[in-house]
Design a protein that fits this description.
Two copies of one chain form a homodimer. Chain A is mostly helical. The first copy, chain A, folds into two domains: 71 residues, Arc Repressor Mutant, subunit A (Orthogonal Bundle); 137 residues, Four Helix Bundle (Hemerythrin (Met), subunit A). In chain A, 71% of the residues lie in helices and 3% in strands. In chain A, α2 packs across α3 and α5 runs antiparallel to α6. The N and C termini of chain A lie far apart (37 Å). Chain A contains nine helices and three strands. In chain A, strands 1-3-2 form a three-stranded antiparallel β-sheet. The relative contact order of chain A is 0.14. At the A-B interface, α3, α4 and α7 of A face α3, α4 and α7 of B. The structure holds a DNA duplex.
Chain lengths: 218, 218
DNA sequence: CAGGAAATAATTTGATCATATTCTGCGCCT
DNA sequence: AGGCGCAGAATATGATCAAATTATTTCCTG
């Protein structure tokens, strides 16, 4: 197995494992309902038990994985009620972050976000689902960083972890056509430092994305 | 050292440790800025390293503790910006839960909440700070349970963990006088199944509480 | 000679691992 | 069909290793 330290210079193993599993949840091959075993990760990643255990405990706390009472851990399966809750929370929080980002952003930030959005468009054009997921997440992560609100950003990141696998399933079903992209409107609002415009555009983006997920759960 | 299993029949050790430390954060003697060591808890609770590690990793993920870059874990110290973020998040989420609770509640739920609020009043009258903290948290936890929205409840619980220690400091400074208590208004709205009234009362309760915390941070 | 700063030694703490133990689920036998 | 082992996975422990902080010592400077 590949050396874990290769990509995490100086980071503790449990942190590296956390990021690997997190990426598997957001962009990788972990599907809703799929069981996740500790030993499987120990063997698959070549790490010890303790770091894997800590990473999983953290992901469970964030809602990215669920602890099934008996000693079984799985990727969460969203039902309609869960999607509704997630929509409510995202609509409540993410426009606020967009608002703050508009207040605090500078030209460099707009340029960075524009570049990310360009890569996102390229991924869509190529039909590259994983690329879309990565760049879409990157776009929102960068925007949240501009907002400079660490607690709200943490909360929103947790929400993304919860619907990540389901979003991926939806993209697998529908391809990269018809994907939500209010990013142009968000970028325009940021460029003219318009907080309310950015908030409105973000709300539209969130609503569109969550509608897709709701439509996708059989 | 006392037997950990005494109060946690059948629960895994890491779960028991998690609850103990969580209660120490919400109601106990852990102050903002105070360092929390793994070995200290291992010796203090009589548990092994792995369960303690897992419990701490979980609390860090929830924001109840912060990882200080180097390998140090402390109770978070809130600044004005953090209080502002927490206020925003609470105002966005908790009234929603109150609204749902009003829609779903029955007479038994109202009776349960009324009983808790009565104990809360008794604690205030006695000047019992810890009792106030416990019953106040209990009141909101019961209300959230009635709302039947597990994801939103999780998010809000995490927020409470973040401001718990600071709230306790404020109570220590000002005593139990002048404490926020819109609970009567909330209960009245629940009793008449009035979602908007419950949401408004909850918003007032949250705003009042967070204002106290903001005033208390030196 | 005194004070302070830098370097070093010692102790404390965190991270990881190998291993033992316990519990769950499943197949088998009665 | 129901109870009984058996396999496998999760939980928990203690030991070991590495890093960091703290205390101490030493050397240089005023």
């Amino acid at each position: 197995m590949v050396n874990l330290r290769a990509e995490g210079a100086g980071l503790p193993t449990h942190e590296v494992v956390y990021r690997q599993v997190r990426d598997m949840i957001l962009f990788g091959e972990l599907e809703p309902g799929q069981p996740v075993t500790i030993q499987g990760l120990v063997e698959g990643l070549g790490a010890g038990m303790t770091p894997v255990r800590e990473a999983l405990r953290r992901l469970i706390a964030e809602g990215a994985l669920v602890f099934q009472g008996n000693r079984r851990i799985t990727v969460p399966v969203l039902d309609a009620a869960a999607v509704e809750e997630l929509t409510l929370a995202r609509v409540a929080l993410e426009p606020q972050l967009a608002r703050r980002a508009a207040l605090r952003c500078d030209d460099a930030a707009v340029a960075l976000l524009t570049a990310t959005d360009t890569r996102l468009d390229a991924a869509i054009a190529k039909g590259d689902v994983r690329g879309y997921l990565v760049e879409n997440h990157q776009f929102h992560a960068e925007l949240n960083a501009v907002a400079g609100a660490p607690i709200l950003t943490d909360l929103v990141e947790g929400l993304w972890l919860r619907f990540g696998p389901s979003l991926r399933v939806v993209c697998g079903q529908f391809g990269t056509r018809n994907l939500p992209d209010q990013h142009k409107a968000i970028l325009a609002a940021l460029a003219r430092r318009d907080p309310e415009g950015a908030a409105a555009a973000m709300q539209a983006d969130v609503a569109q994305g969550m509608t897709q997920i709701a439509a996708g759960l059989s």
